[in-house]
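Let's practice the habit of predicting before peeking. Look at the sequence and jot down your guess about where helices and strands might fall. Then scroll down.
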Amino acid sequence: GLLIIAKQRKALVALHDMMRQSAGRKLYQALVVGDWVNDRQHIRKPLLKFLTPGGERRVKVDPLGKPAHTIVTCLKRFGRYTLVGAELRTGRTHQIRVHLASSGFPIVGDDKYGSEAVRDHFASLGFKRMFLHAARLEIPHPVTGEAMVFEAPLPPACVNLLRLLEHEK
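Done guessing? Here is the structure:
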């Protein structure tokens, strides 16, 4: 996925401001359990952070939470699984993971909001991670304002898994 590193403090502060204001476009790809219904769907559900009794940070959909907006697009269907694109309009902790899981479509390999049985199944196929990928970032340059676009192809493990699913259809 994509990772941004600022070389100068001025750029870092500007990047932080952009992220807080949800400037630019952040696009992800995720493989979800289930046959995604709509070609394009807006998920607007408020998200609330909480701690589990063991002290682990989690997030849940809750009316008392902060507004969160994710646009989900169907990219390709694989029978019982669907590759989706997810565009963040807000940037809440675990937003994509919780929005998809709360909609009945958990991300393959998600150890917090997904199914252990699904994780075990994919681990037996050699896939031992969550299938969530930061694919594209479109932002203005933090100092000059010039439009910048960054893209990262799916990692080989994800590509191989999709090929495997393609042959199972």
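How did you do? The beta strands are 25-33, 40-44, 47-51, 57-61, 69-78, 81-88, 132-140, 147-151.
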